[in-house]
Amino acid sequence: MARGSVLYTLATHTSGRGNVMADLVLGDLIAHSGQGQRGAGICEGSRGMRATAAWPLLLPLPHPQLSPAAWPQASSRLSRSQGRGSSQRWSQPISARQSERQHSPSGTAELTAVSAWRGSMAMSPLLYYALPALGSYVVISMYFLRRPHLLHTPWVPAFFPRLGAHRGGSGERLENTMEAMENSVAQRADLLELDCQLTRDGVVVVSHDKNLSRQSGVNRDVGSLDFEELPLYKEELEVYFSPGHFAHGSDRHMTRLEDVFQRFPRMPMSLEVKGENVELIHKIAGLVRRFDRCEITIWASEKSSIMKKCRAANPEMPFSFTISRGFRLLLLYYLGLLPFIPIPERFLICFLPTIINRTYFPFSSPGLNQLAAVLSKWFIMRKSLIQHLEQRGVQVMLAAPRKCAVQHGPSTAFQS
């Protein structure tokens, strides 16, 4: 076959009116020698149809529905149906025809549809694998959230407190005094929550504040005075969880931690360390060992750096969550990862968000403070979270007024 000749086939189909339409599939034969080469042609018909043909350039391809004798008739009908403009269109280069399609309304719609189809085909494999994997992960996470014993050995609690006394029972007596603690024990409190400071002469005392202004009206730090120089408490102190309400008591003396251990030898206690005072931490650890209280005395602190030092000083004592560890706990819970993560803490000590006052929500508007409390309660007070922790041996203790402590049931509640 001579170089530059054109080989074509006729593809027929029946339209709605019964006319036979034919689309030409054209290909230019570019032969580099006298022998035939393989080629391919891509073209469009009168209805915007596209066809691709691959053939050997040695022999024309016969159409299955047309005999060679019927080819001239079909070609004539094709020319009459498409008109002269269509013939000119076939003679245009491929780039020109593509440009024409892009600027025509029907061509633009077709290209848009093709692009959308290609995008959906690209996303299909991702959705095909991602959605079942995500669904399986959610089911597995929920399964182990309710059955943590299948993955973890739960802690064995040494005691089971149900009513704790915040600051020794600050809601009815002056906070952290011996009188307040005895009053709390008389009302069946089975855990004392205390804060510790160190005096200048190395005595560990029970005091919430480092500075004595709020408690005693003296603008001095506990660490700047000897134990014998510590001033008396004020005659009344505002209740922490009830602004505007005041506690009174006849005992106004600051108490040594050693005296508390002697007075209540088997009473479980939570000792909070607020400053990074290594001497204070080691003295507390020594007193706990001296009175054989390692299993019933809890390390507590808001900062993870302080908690690290406490655990190093006495690793036999159980410890509670710090603030950062508490936020991490919530994040793992909402991501579904909590059932698969080990928990070294044995206690979660938390305030009920609805009773937290302006100290923790610094907004000037009472409405914003209330909204923050409601949102905090929604995120923290999750029944499935508390049940999961308790099944793993982590005891949840919530700080609340005593009337709330009776209502909230299963977890420990601190009486203020």
Automatic annotation (TrEMBL):
Subcellular location(s) of the protein: Cytoplasm, Perinuclear region; Endoplasmic reticulum; Membrane
Catalyses which reaction(s): 1-O-(1Z-octadecenyl)-sn-glycero-3-phospho-N-hexadecanoyl-ethanolamine + H2O = 1-O-(1Z-octadecenyl)-sn-glycero-3-phosphate + N-hexadecanoylethanolamine + H(+); N-(5Z,8Z,11Z,14Z-eicosatetraenoyl)-1-(9Z-octadecenoyl)-sn-glycero-3-phosphoethanolamine + H2O = N-(5Z,8Z,11Z,14Z-eicosatetraenoyl)-ethanolamine + 1-(9Z-octadecenoyl)-sn-glycero-3-phosphate + H(+); 1-O-hexadecyl-sn-glycero-3-phosphocholine + H2O = 1-O-hexadecyl-sn-glycero-3-phosphate + choline + H(+); N-hexadecanoyl-1-(9Z-octadecenoyl)-sn-glycero-3-phosphoethanolamine + H2O = N-hexadecanoylethanolamine + 1-(9Z-octadecenoyl)-sn-glycero-3-phosphate + H(+)
Keyword Ligase among record annotations: no
Any one biological process term the GO annotation gives: glycerophospholipid catabolic process
Coiled coil: none
Keyword Lipid metabolism: yes
Gene Ontology MF terms: metal ion binding; phosphatidylcholine lysophospholipase activity; phosphoric diester hydrolase activity
Keywords carried by this UniProt record: Cytoplasm, Endoplasmic reticulum, Hydrolase, Lipid metabolism, Membrane, Metal-binding, Transmembrane, Transmembrane helix
Residue ranges crossing the lipid bilayer per the database entry: 126-145
Membrane topology classification: Multi-pass membrane protein
Positions of the UniProt region annotated as Disordered: 70-108
GO cellular component annotations of the record: endoplasmic reticulum membrane; perinuclear region of cytoplasm
Principal place of residence: cytoplasm
Low complexity bias: start-end ranges: 70-92
Segments forming domain GP-PDE: 161-410
Stated family: Belongs to the glycerophosphoryl diester phosphodiesterase family.
The protein's role, per its UniProt record: Hydrolyzes lysoglycerophospholipids to produce lysophosphatidic acid (LPA) and the corresponding amines. Shows a preference for 1-O-alkyl-sn-glycero-3-phosphocholine (lyso-PAF), lysophosphatidylcholine (lyso-PC) and N-acylethanolamine lysophospholipids. Does not display glycerophosphodiester phosphodiesterase activity, since it cannot hydrolyze either glycerophosphoinositol or glycerophosphocholine.
Name of the protein in its database record: Lysophospholipase D GDPD3
Organism: Equus caballus
